Amino acid sequence: MNALSDAALRRLRDAADVPDLSDTKYEIIERIGQGGMGTVYRARDRELGREVALKVVRLPEGAPDISARMMREARTLARLEHPGIVPVHDVGTLVDGRVFYAMKLVRGAPLHELSVTGLADRLRIVERVCEAVAFAHAHGVIHRDLKPQNVMVGPFGEVLVMDWGVAKIVGDATLSLGTGSPAGTDDHAEPSTGHGVVLGTPGYMAPEQAAGDPSLVDARADVHAIGAILRDLCSDNAGAERPDASGDVPRPVAAIIRRAMAPEPRERYPDVTALARDVAAFRAGDRVSAYDENVFERTRRLAIRHSTPILLVLAYLLMRVTFLAVFGR
Amino acid sequence: MGSFPATRHSVVAGIASPDVHTRRVAFDALVSAYWRPVYKYVRIKWRRDREDAADLTQEFFARAFEKGSLGRFEPARARFRTFLRLCLDGFVANEIKARGRLKRGGEASFVPLDFAAAEHELSMHPAANGNAAAGLVSPDEDDLFRQEWVRGLFSDAVAALRASCNAAGKTTQFAVFQRYDLDDNDNPDARPTYAQLASELAIPVTQVTNYLAFARRELRRLVLERLRSLCATDEEFRLEARELLGTDPTSGPA
């Protein structure tokens, strides 16, 4: 046969990796992304005539019966209906044993490819992420791989959390923990991965997650990751292990990042809602729980927050003084 | 095509076998898989002319068979592919040094090696066309060797796929695969659509999907089958498969 050119070889390597969808209602259009956990394709649903994002999950090693577990998790994810969570339409197993998810095809760009200007917009994005993740936590799902690549921002500013492929399901447990609570997992819940299998992304995953023991991972791992996303948004320190936000970051925001990314889970926000509350407080000019401000900072904050009534009062006083000076004799 | 012994990892294990016949069969398979990368590597990295590179390629395998040097591979230290390349480097360096006082050519001969075809393939390589000889290109040694090894692996798998399709009367399946994945359609716009292929081959569009899926599944199986026989351990096989296809072969029954 003729020699394979480099281009033909590339195509063949891709072709050999293309999932066999002959038993499904989908057909591949193109590959649109590849990550550590799998490959995402733009595909067409032949029955409904719509395009979907089809993720074929690469199964981690060292975990028996992982396929059945991932199917169970996918079904749980399919029940998460929230504007900030990409809906899962379908889930199944390919003939070669790999699990796939068919999800809504989202238009937009991942956060790491966007240049978000203005602190207010950055904080708004983080708040939207917190809302979606808090909703998932309330339904017993921990994302475990939050990072800018998994946050999609749509053309109208909508924020969607993607890639729940390594999420951990903790049954009916309440994930919100009080300070000092020893663990955030449901003892009866079945972890999605075996001991020693590390899922997540360095720079974003919490230290206890990097240790590879799923029983140590609770909702506060997602708090850590959202803190890292906020750090990236506020600085040039993207993907760093440390919670330092380089650049001109307001002290309260830096304190929020530090608290969210504290190495010890008990020193972080107890849940994502608490983190969101602090972010919202800063945006509104209120006091941030993670930051002990001094009297000057408090005065300045209050002055900025109440600048309009203060200016109106000052203007009124100035007018009165002027009036008395001119006509009061 | 060399014949592949049935057991897993049999090629690498086979070349260390005390049984001459087993060793011979394993060596034929090994030479089939590696002679192209060896020849091209000698041409480009060692800047030898065609005749010299062909002689060195044949001599390398003949000497390795006679001395059993490749059978001394230790899986814990490196991948077999890397080990073979390092053996080749040592062999060529010694051979150049000893030129003139050593008799060239071994007694052993293996599967026929089509150096003219390899030379034609090499003409498409960016490091060819005189650049390598002029020292203008210094490709990464391992990348060069690996790329040619991968090319050989896929070429063999495609040839096997064609043969099995012909034997099973599945020529249309192969034709779909050839038109869509194999033909030089570097321009994405020139690639036929499923509908065009269906019209061209007088089959329903759904059959195009099925035939393409079949051929790709078979290609994947054939590539992994060859890869498995050329790796020394399960771990090496998994690593190579992950790098080659982007997926873990343990995820499927391949």
Descriptive key words:
heterodimer, A: 329 residues, alpha+beta, Phosphorylase Kinase, domain 1, Transferase(Phosphotransferase), domain 1, 3 domains, five-stranded antiparallel β-sheet, three-stranded antiparallel β-sheet, 9 helices, 36% helix, B: 254 residues, mainly alpha, 10 helices, globular, disordered N terminus
Report the end-to-end length of chain B measured between terminal Cα atoms.
Answer: 21 Å
Shape of chain B: globular
Q: Unreliable segments of chain A (pLDDT under 50, ≥5 consecutive)?
A: 172-195
Give the averaged pLDDT of chain B, no decimals.
77
Measured between the Cα atoms of the first and last residue of chain A, the distance is 110 Å
How would a crystallographer describe the biggest sheet of chain B?
Answer: none
Helix content of chain A: 25-40%
Extended strand count of chain B: 0
CATH architectural designation of the largest domain in chain A? Orthogonal Bundle
Q: What is the approximate shape of chain A?
A: elongated
Pairing-aware structural class of the strands and helices of chain B? mainly alpha
Give the amount of beta strand of chain A, in percent. 15-25%
The secondary-structure class of chain A comes to alpha+beta
Q: Proportion of β residues of chain B?
A: under 5%
CATH topology of the largest domain in chain A: Transferase(Phosphotransferase), domain 1
Low-confidence stretches of chain B: 1-8, 131-138
Q: What is the total tally of β strands of chain A?
A: 10
Mean pLDDT of chain A: 79
Task: Explain this structure.
The complex is a heterodimer of chains A (329) and B (254). Chain A has 329 residues and is an alpha+beta fold. Chain A folds into three domains: 10-105, Phosphorylase Kinase, domain 1 (2-Layer Sandwich), CATH 3.30.200.20; 107-292, Orthogonal Bundle (Transferase(Phosphotransferase), domain 1); 296-327. Chain A has nine helices and ten strands. Chain A has helices at 6-17, 66-78, 119-138, 207-210, 219-234, 251-260, 272-284, 295-305, 307-327, and strands at residues 26-35, 38-45, 50-57, 88-93, 99-104, 109-110, 141-142, 151-153, 159-161, 168-169. In chain A, the strands form three sheets. A five-stranded antiparallel beta sheet of chain A has the order 1-2-3-5-4, with helices on one face. Residues 172-195 of chain A have low confidence and may be disordered. By secondary structure, chain B is an all-alpha fold. Chain B has one domain. Chain B contains ten helices and no strands. In chain B, helix 7 (171-182) packs across helix 9, helix 8 crosses helix 9 (205-230) and helix 9 packs antiparallel against helix 10. At the A-B interface, helix 1 of A face helix 5, helix 6, helix 9 and helix 10 of B.
